[in-house]
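ok so for the tutorial part 2 we go from a plain amino acid sequence to predicted structure tokens. step 1 is just haveing the sequence, like this:
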Amino acid sequence: MDIIPYQAKAKKISGTSRTEVYRGALTIFSEIKKATKRRPYIRSAYFKKEKIFFDYFWDHLRQKPYKDRLERLKYFGAAVDLVKNSKNKPLVKSNPNKSKEFFYRFTGLTAEKNLFFVQIKEDSKTKHKYFMSCFPPS
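step 2 — the prediction. this is what the tokens look like for a chain of 138 residues:
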């Protein structure tokens, strides 16, 4: 089974310092937050326009080392574009620790042709989906 990467229209967020990269990512996230009065979400083309929430993303990001955090945030804009528009099939894995959770790993390319991944967690009990992470290949 070949995973076909989604060609995103968004570029990597440019910058070398923490403030430049965070400003770019927070600008994108604030647009998402403005669209709702409650929990921020985006609608996914792959999941038939179901909501993908950001509940765990920022906490998950804070657990990473500083350099890794910056590298992941650079892909945030392209990751949001991928989740909104991609209909390509992801790699699906069940959580070995919790049988009621599934992880969907989407593959994408930025406008500059940089490969990246987006991970979405689904709680099969509630059917809620959460944007967990976006990251380059290691």
